[in-house]
């Protein structure tokens, strides 16, 4: 999926005849493109609250293929349309991609080995973000036009995607043992979704507020990583792989080890501890970079590890563990998409805020300051949420 979402971020679009002035500040073409795509992604997340929760399992594979074909055609439109229409093409590109994660999670959740499966899935998108931007940068070096590069990158991954969907469709549904250990997972209608929200409202509010800023941070890093490298004097396209591969496999290993923790409540506590540790790593590495004790590439790798150690559980094991610990009958995808919808709203707002209200400082300075504030604010919010949900888990039978 990332081959159809992220390659265009490898280009700068500095010569694009497209700028918008607001309050005397210029919003650059690349920011407009990113906002358009993320806005489509955000709209899709709101739709995914319903679609991913209700879609029958038999139709998941067809829905995945339809999403990718639609997004690929939108990249073709991005290549051929006039400058003023290119943001529209990226909006249409982002819309179908926003539900892909939830559809894949539907195949994997509710199993006794869900931590292992979701850890591998999470590793794939951390790794993919760097790898597809490396492919995009390679195509640019080979002379491919920066507007055709995203479509060309997607063309290289259509067949592998279809094969992967076919393999996913061969997975059997969760067994009776899985349902006993992790609570039964079933589609959630409007009534079930409202019941879940009412039951866990205070904790969900805390998590969603934090996730709004965390998603904005992660998306800023992902979208402007090429620009941050340039500001730090890192010009090698392989830097994307050097920083993201250790992050991906480090996070995957730690989340997979969480599988060894037995008991739903202890497992949930372990996930929260890992997430809080991620914020400590993010803040600590940023302080070391600010003091000149580590270099830019090392900081991107270590801070990325901390940020993703906190970010990845939101889309994978956190809500799966919450449902298992509280014995709520439903699907983790609903909670994941509720948080995602709000999170990507924050991502759009942060990009606009940076260009309009913080345009006098470089992206690198903005990102460094954002890292410190996120770490300091995130720890108390995560601790409060952990106390709330672990308290609710005590009420579940057999805990």
Automatic annotation (TrEMBL):
Entries under Pfam families matching the protein: DUF5690
Keywords on record: Membrane, Transmembrane, Transmembrane helix
Name of the protein in question: DUF5690 family protein
Domain of life, source organism: Bacteria
Annotated transmembrane regions: 60-81, 87-104, 116-135, 147-173, 194-214, 247-264, 271-293, 299-319, 331-352, 372-391
InterPro entries, A to Z: DUF5690
